[in-house]
Amino acid sequence: MGAPFPLSRPRRNRINPVIREMLRETDVRPCNLVLPLFLVPGNGVSEPVKSMEGVFRWSCDMVQRPVEEALESGVRSFLLFGIPSYKDDTGSSADDPSEPVQRALEDMRSRYPEAYLVSDVCLCEYTSHGHCGVIRDGVIHNDGTLERLASVALSHARAGAHAVAPSDMMDGRIIAVRKALESHGFPDVAIWSYAAKFASAFYGPFREAAQSAPSFGDRKSHQLPHFNRLEALRDALMDEDEGADLLIVKPAGTSLDVIRDLKDRTMLPIGGYVVSGEHCMLKDAIGAGHMDKSAYLEYHQCVRRAGCSVIITYGATELAREISVQGG
């Protein structure tokens, strides 16, 4: 016969707010958050992204504003995306040192020594066709893309990136980037791999913000099918073997099972990307009065609970301020 009233014991630790906070298992802190930034050519540009509340495109001379607001809130890490001044079939602007990402990296590295700078490495924003790699005979050529990705990563390292984040999902990209960095004197530049990036319907607003929608076809040939958990785990663990330093799962909120499973299989830190569609879904529902504003923090706490040390989110500054108000 079991002990009497076995379910009554845990409830006692939920009654008093002091003990409830003492026994809190999961916290999101500002240091866990990474703020994405969209950089554009020109000067004096502060352009709101219509589909994403609170998100702007910034020219390099204006990006100080969101960076300093984030730093003041306690957010120290930034993920840079670029919209180039020109596009072509091979994305040649992606490793051009005069383009916005490289210029911003150089300026931010010297201006904000306390900041940690991560650059997105992909070709979709830079190609005229909007795909993540080099196109040959109407399809993405995996091996032909690796050389371009390595060159882009190297240009970001030279400009001052602390970490590069290949998001293209080509096979072999991590080892190609790692070899390029180490052979050119950048062994300390980390690789944040988009290790489990699903072909998701939640990326729509981002593609508007980054002007990166494909002009034909889709990205299902290289991004993961959202219904395959084991394939995602295999891909992520291959990136670990190739030399990744952090594994990103994207989208985060629809992939909590993958995050948890990956946490049990790797010693590397895990990042979750709360993507544009998730951001908009939450913001629109909160704005319409369907959910309390605390839902935004709760969503991120669940990503953290699943096993993420790093959360990439468009609401990083806002979340950090909320956490500060709550005394977190």
Automatic annotation (TrEMBL):
Pfam families: ALAD (PF00490)
InterPro entries per record: ALAD, Aldolase_TIM
Domain of life: Bacteria
GO molecular function: porphobilinogen synthase activity; zinc ion binding
Binding-site positions, 5-aminolevulinate 1: 207, 219
GO cellular component terms listed in the entry, alphabetical order: cytosol
Active site: 197 (schiff-base intermediate with substrate), 250 (schiff-base intermediate with substrate)
Recorded metabolic or biological pathway in which this protein acts: Porphyrin-containing compound metabolism; protoporphyrin-IX biosynthesis; coproporphyrinogen-III from 5-aminolevulinate: step 1/4
Catalytic activity: 2 5-aminolevulinate = porphobilinogen + 2 H2O + H(+)
EC number, as in UniProt: 4.2.1.24
Binding site for Zn(2+): 122, 124, 132
Xref: PANTHER family: DELTA-AMINOLEVULINIC ACID DEHYDRATASE
Similarity section: Belongs to the ALAD family.
Full protein name: Delta-aminolevulinic acid dehydratase
